[in-house]
Design brief:
Four copies of one chain form a homotetramer.
Chain A (H helix, E strand, L loop, with lengths): L1 H8 L1 E4 L3 E4 L3 H8 L1 H4 L21 H21 L6 H13 L21 H15 L5 H7 L6 H7 L5 H14 L8 H6 L1 E4 L2 E5 L3 H19 L2 H22 L8 H8 L4 H4 L2 H8 L3 H11 L5 H11 L5 E5 L5 H16 L9 E8 L10 E3 L5 E3 H4 L4 H5 L3 E8 L4
Parallel strand pairs in A: 4-7
Antiparallel strand pairs in A: 1-2, 3-4, 5-9, 6-9, 7-8
Chain lengths: ~400, ~400, ~400, ~400
């Protein structure tokens, strides 16, 4: 009877992977923790839902999905004779479950705006260490794997590499919720082809086309979803709003915000002063809702810059954005600036809130970082770009640079 | 060139139906309106995502999907010789687009808690009339159809009946985002079988099995998703939180809340005093985020009842709920009440915040309300339950009653 | 090296269930056997592809899919504490793999036309016993389970009952390949809810809606696909062709046919004379292709009845069929017969080849045969129709009778 | 009433695209013709089902699917202002419907074995001309478009180019039925992005990533499905069987075969002597079933070579195949030949039936043949490889060469 109750709570419906089973008690307890439950309130793809209205999925769901793929990967590797102890299996499961726990409101979008240049991985680590205290050190091995401090590197690679469970889940999940079918990958097939040699993650040769498809899909999702010009535009606006709010706070204004969000608007939190309990606990209390509810109130604020940006974002009157293969013409920028000054009624120094340009760089595959090695039929390893039968992968490993110009609509 | 730009904005990616094309300029303008954009921030299924983590889809997406099905339905009916003028087509498209615009935060969950017993349909109508002013009366026919004041009833039936585009969309959409495959229906097939006789909506005979499946699926979604005991539990908690917050406000406390939410916490807004511009505009500014960000702050409030409920909901420590076919044993309720008083430290009068029981009633199909008529091969009409080849449909039209007990966990 | 090769052959791509892994060596060997490979050439749904052009899937694919679900069911039951030995697991896997091996050309359609009233289950058993000799008795336990001669009935129930892996696979598979979305069931979810009490298969209470959906879907597939009037029509024609060919053979004619098919056209093979090696081996050599290639040649045969039927079937000029809830009017039948005699130019005695009427009966659920028991939260068992919260299931267990009239088009 | 009957027959269930509507009477009549119905009995992917057991879909289904996409493409182009007359729309619909009607048994596999070096396109044309006679010249424009003799080249390009409806359908369809998710393409999205400039087919710029995905997917399907080594192996065996049967026939043997198949086994039918009515009508009567039923009989033939090949293929004891990036080592071939001679007991001259090696060449994209032009936002055209933002497409347009060795297993 009691058994059934426990079983029940451990199966989660996932339209992407079917049913997710939580295989470790400790994973279950971690999922119940408020730090983890918080991820339910953080969208995986920031503001992408403004373009793809189905993209409201959360970091919570992604973390569970990645955990599910990890369960499968462990089973596949064990079936090929790779020894993985129960302790290691639990630890790598916890590591993937917690890999994104440090994300704040709107995930990557505000990664540098809530705190000051703190990567979400660092905050993830801070959360893990805090949890490790609460769970009496039972997360130590998970943390070692996450930090790549464990002597069997393939476990870290399953969490963080060019073929990790993170990517396999998010590509499939983002494709499912956006409806961009070009992002469909054969995650199940790729996992079936994983293997380990000398404690490093490798890929059986016959999985090579799946990998190529995976890399190609990731590149397409990058440009078509993550860097979609309307997404880029709205994310700029959101960042500028946060920056302006911080500026106003630090110049004595008092804006409507939840106390926890206020903490970050009033204080510069960077790597040095983050680890204090205070920052972490404030951080644990903010999510998308704090930002959104404030922005709506700020639409009526007396500061013209803040209220204009907020009104535009809430009503989805987004900045005009162009992404092109050539650098932006400087004259065009100057021309636009003049018009914007007049239209909005602002000074030169505040133009940065309404016009921006920068470079976007993406490599679909990186030969020199955590390269993907192919286990050939003759038993030898070959780096993916070398093993592939054409120039394709090599081409994909060349960084693509694009130029982005983003400004308030002047018509 | 300009053409292309417009076209581009008019195609929306929908993982459920593929691509959604906006076929009327006016529909496009309505979608751009802040009243409509607001629906992006209101979850279709309230708190169901606490059980089905994928269920974060919004009223915005649902409205677009229902509009898409309406476009298809119009095309099917026209291809069968039913005359529908462009003006009627536009109006019925607008009517379905706007049918849910009156939903507030967390959709049905808080329908009676934000305002006082105001149905979302009434608020939808208020929004439509407001929009009609802004759009110079171009929504008049849409409003007539919505109110069933137009002389061709099938147009209203496409918007609101047992076979409307609303249901066809939400069943398919809720099934997609929850991953509950039992909810899959043949919406495309059902639409293909629609027909009109004497200006009333009917179903071609060979669609009868699809209809039966649709009714069965709806029943399953009702009990498995919409009335899932954990969903019911969390929604109770949310309602109780709002009630307690209102109580505190009206007794002089000041709680953290956005100004627009405060308006509804401080004032009893009912059918009488709603139609004022003030209420509508405040209502237009609140959504899920206002509620969520307040609840998090309220977890630290000095009122024990409020803070306890908020903390439990945020951390997903949900009420224990049982749903059974027999009435709840009164003795058990009394027993529980005693234990709860002790555990939480509250008085009799406040027990209502921590324990509740009530009846749930559902009819999968209602013979007497907007019945579904089948157009038989011999050209005659027959009501669905009569036309069906067994007792199945008749059985489904019998209301099912269940009894729900929901209380704070006492262990 | 050798390892990898074996692994490779043991993973099979299935669009319905994802990847199918063959978990037992012996299952692998059985699959390789020509008796089993033959199933690749037998369509699962006879002539349904004439209505649903995607329905070309085979008995081979279905058997693998059912085996896959069995693997999952075993894992679920074991995780709930049901003890299943490796030997039992292997045996029940083999039993489901082989449950349909006795199907002949076009599966059910010709079940009574190739041989004389021999059920495919009997032929399956004959094949299993033959294979058991070749595999040195290693199939004995599988055969016992298949015959329900083993002391743990749930193993037989997994193979053959109202909730067996056979039905769970074929509903999902037929739905996938026909595109009839009403047939979608939650097979994965149902399996997750399986349990065993007193060595009998039961269902956890919270799976009850999935079961209801499953029963409803099966009913819909029955009438919409399996008994679709055009399918029924074409299957009648095929049966009549076989009957006529047999008649001609036994009256001295020599028709084009492969030697193995000829054996069955020339001889009456029934339960008595089947078990001889001769019949089984001839049977093992025929499949859809023998029938089809003969029919095409027979379109030019001098016998008017045979050639007419063959030409009509090959060119898809199918019999006109009506399926109605009332018995067929006798006068109408007589009238049709007169017209057919004139049109085709045949005598009274041969009318049976061109006009037929009969009753179709289906119960979606049968209370008295292998009933489905629900394991309630209080630990007690209740039969499904009793446990269900409305009349729905009871209604579904009432047999539906329809009347079918099928005749050559007289226009 | 009559209307409804006609409508009914014109909607076809397709699990890939949903519902297929036949929009032209003439298309409906052509589909009913025995020449077209024959395609129901020809598998789209030859023997690929030996590796992907779901791949039993037919040329018939593919032709309908391609027609469906054509209907959509016409609607999209018209909505962008491209003028397409009803006559042109009907003709291009018929052209795509009939583009593959010349395929014989097992599609491409036996393309050079049934007849002598006759391409299926030539036979398609012969069928079209024959049908054109029967339909009183109403197919003339369709034939002109098919032959690219019409003055608006985009119509031919919709039927036959690097972006034609043929490819868009078969990739999606083959992916659906094999379950190879890497082949999923955004066909609907690609069609939405089609455009016409100067009567040539072009692609709107924002479709560029979909095109890249499409080209990548096609490459993957090529190597993973169409040229899968086991598929290649079985197709070699089938070709060799046909060749041996022809050899025996021409040396006086009489093998079991349907009369229509015999015609092609006894006679060398090439471009010169094909167009006679005789060949075409014989060709119209053969399909997969003739081949399969003969092969089974031939397993007992006295010719060792024929019976061995047939037995191996029927029992799926396939040739061992290796596909590698380097040319096959000559010594290894010689070694194998010696062993095969001994094992099978054949002479040098007959080794060709049991061992073969050859080069496979594929270009995922061809710059110089029917290149894909991108319509940029500035209104100018750019060839795809030039318009793409990296070397990827250029890489894909380089032909890939692989070396294939295929021989009877010698163990």
């Amino acid at each position: 009877m009691e058994n059934r109750v426990i079983n029940k709570r451990k199966i989660i419906n996932d339209p992407v992977h079917g049913f997710i089973t939580i295989t470790f008690e400790l994973a279950y307890d971690v999922i119940q923790h408020p730090y983890f439950q918080r991820l339910r309130r953080i969208k995986q793809l920031g503001l992408s839902h403004l373009v793809y209205p189905g993209a409201n999925h959360t970091r919570f769901h992604h973390a569970l999905g990645a955990m599910h793929l990890m369960t499968n990967a462990i089973a596949v590797l064990r079936s090929k004779g790779v020894e993985i102890s129960e302790k290691e299996a639990e630890a790598v499961t916890l590591a993937i479950l917690l890999h994104d726990i440090g994300h704040g409101p709107f995930s990557h979008t505000l990664e540098n705006s809530i705190t000051d240049a703190l990567h979400h991985e660092d905050i993830s680590l801070a959360f893990m260490e805090e949890l490790n205290k609460e769970f009496d050190g039972r997360l130590t091995l998970a943390i070692d794997i996450f930090k790549d401090d464990y002597h069997r590197p393939f476990l870290n690679q399953l969490v963080s590499s060019q073929l990790d469970m993170d990517r396999l889940d998010y590509l499939q999940r983002d494709s499912y919720f956006t409806g961009v079918s070009e992002g469909v990958i054969g995650a199940e097939r790729i996992i079936t082809m994983l293997n380990v040699r000398d404690d490093k993650l490798v890929m059986d040769e016959k999985g090579i086309y799946s990998i190529e498809n995976f890399i190609g899909s990731r590149r397409i999702m990058y440009w078509q979803v993550y860097m979609h010009k309307t997404v880029v535009s709205s994310e700029h606006m959101l960042i500028n709003i946060l920056n302006r709010a911080k500026y106003l706070f630090r110049n004595g204004a008092d804006l409507f915000a939840s106390p926890h969000l206020k903490f970050f608007l009033e204080n510069d939190i960077d790597e040095q002063n983050f680890s204090r309990d205070e920052s972490l606990n404030h951080f644990a209390m903010i999510d998308d809702a704090d930002i959104l509810s404030s922005i709506k109130v700020w639409t009526k604020h007396e500061d013209l810059i803040l209220s204009t940006l907020c009104q535009y974002l809430i009503d989805r009157k987004l900045f005009k954005t162009t992404i092109s293969n050539e650098p932006i013409d400087t004259n065009r920028i100057e021309e636009l600036k003049e018009k914007i000054k007049v239209k909005i009624g602002i000074e030169e120094a505040d133009l940065k809130y309404f016009i921006q340009h920068h470079k976007l760089v993406n490599s679909a595959y990186t030969e020199n970082y955590q390269q993907i090695n192919i286990l050939q039929r003759n038993g030898q390893l070959k780096e993916l770009a070398q093993a592939s039968d054409n120039l394709n992968i090599l081409a994909l490993s060349k960084p693509v640079e694009k130029y982005c110009l983003c400004h308030v609509n002047i018509h």
